[in-house]
Amino acid sequence: MTCPAPPATMLIVGGGEFGSTAALALAEGPYRGHGNLITVLERGAEPPAVDAASSDYNKIVRADYADPLYQSFAIEAIEQWRTPRWKKHFHECGVVVAAAETDPQAGYVVNSHRLNKEEDVGRLERAGGIKRFYSASIGTGEFSGDVAYKNKVGGWAASRDAVVEAINLARKLGVTFVSGEAESLIICPGPNGSDVKGVQTVDGREYRADFVIVACGSWTPKLLPELATNCLPTGQTVATVQLSKEEVEKHKDMPVSLFMDTGLCPNKDGIVKMAIHDRGWLAPSGTFPSLPRTTLSSGYERQQIPTVALDTLRRGMRRMHPELAEKEIVETRLCWYSDRESGDFLFDWHPTYPSLFVAAGGSGHAFKFLPLTGNWIVSALTRTLPPHLQRLWSFTTGDKSRLDKSRGEGPIVRRDLDTGVVREIRVPAAQTVKAKL
Q1: Could you tell me the domains of the chain?
Q2: pLDDT 10s digits, 383-392
Q3: Per the entry, which co-factors are needed (predicted)?
């Protein structure tokens, strides 16, 4: 099968993390000197769209995994975050990784600690030992019953700024970015069957190319309904508080707090983001088990997260930093993930359409790998990925025995945004637990 190369044209649908880094890696690699042959179609007026998962104040960049493969990737990514290209967007303040000792997730913390270098993480601590991870000027909870460690490696990255960096670098190499929301694929007959040759937008415009990459994140099932469950859109609840100038100074060197059920991450402007680290919420739509509802969705311009989620965020804040827990919430939103049960990414050619490639399945942990994702996508596109990654990130095979347990040890269940009813959505093939991220 032919690999994309000049003079073949390339259309990338989606300008978030996957789309922008793929465009940059193509323009610096197989399309070097021919960036003008690459077009990125993004639904927002200026990429990335304001409701994209990567269009955020910040994301945790951690080297902490219970899975050795992704832990090795995380360390490689952090090395790249420290390079001149990315370091201005990376703030290496350390990461406190914790869980209640009675929670099954404590096993994740222990296994993750074991995979890190001793000089980076020290020993596992409890209660008062955990309090010492934070400056005496920063109020914390008592951490009674918790087990934790602090990893000096890692911190947070200004996520929207980093994606804009990739976009600007790609533009300098000739890549064109256009605004428009893809509505459907353009499928044309060919000598060996049907093939995808572009997309039509909601306003009727057509964008055609020799090759198409779908990199739409949680919107992927809209173009590829066959991925409605295998790249399931799930809404993750997020809230923010604003620190005063005095509080910013006091908290400026605070490490990221990653408790296995919730997390807290401040940024340079004193905005502290709280998020729940769980399976998320579903928004059923027609025949789809879930599709994103964002600030750009009609009727959902003002994002209200479920009351039970807001209460949970407050409890998590009181557990970690009680003095911040009573501050006014200035913003809530749903951040939409493209979830695969295994937690493994989907970087592969479509099994039916020879000219269609899919980059999806971020599963809530892809952003930390931003310096690597473009090269991974291009390697999959050119069929030069190592065989074990080809299998793992495959459209049709993958590893059916893997199950992502980083957001909960039990069955993968989520709640319906409208009813609050707990639902279990599984891909058609049966799976058994063997590995966890």
Answers
A1: 10-53+160-231+340-399 (3.50.50.60), 94-155+233-336 (3.30.9.10)
A2: 999 999 999 9
A3: FAD
